[in-house]
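Reviewer 2 asked us to include a model.

Predict the structure of this chain.
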Amino acid sequence: ENVGKEIWKGVHSNDPSIKTIVPLKRSFASSIPQQTVECTKRAFTSFIRNKRAIIAKTIRALIIGIILTLLFFNMEEDQLGMNNRVSLLFFCITFTVMGSIASIPQVVSERKIFYH
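Predicted model (structure tokens):
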């Protein structure tokens, strides 16, 4: 029991005289909202400069929109139709999440710039 408390003091302590792994107060050159705004500007600028990505994402969104419109069109208003709507909604959410996963490698590659 005491060993755990001693180890925790080395990780995080309320006593400022004890040197710990985790600093008591972190200070940055800019605030978190300012960092968020700057990172958003950078991502937007990077996206705008890539014309192929804009065209590909626009065409992809149009095709998916047309497919989903055709799937939702003329669905029945009964229990089976509701089951189909919920299933289709699940598909839409899953498709969106899988599309977001594709951007993870880009975030990892830009991590050095973010930490800099």
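The chain has a mean pLDDT of 77. The first helix runs from residue 2 to 11. We have added this to the supplementary material.
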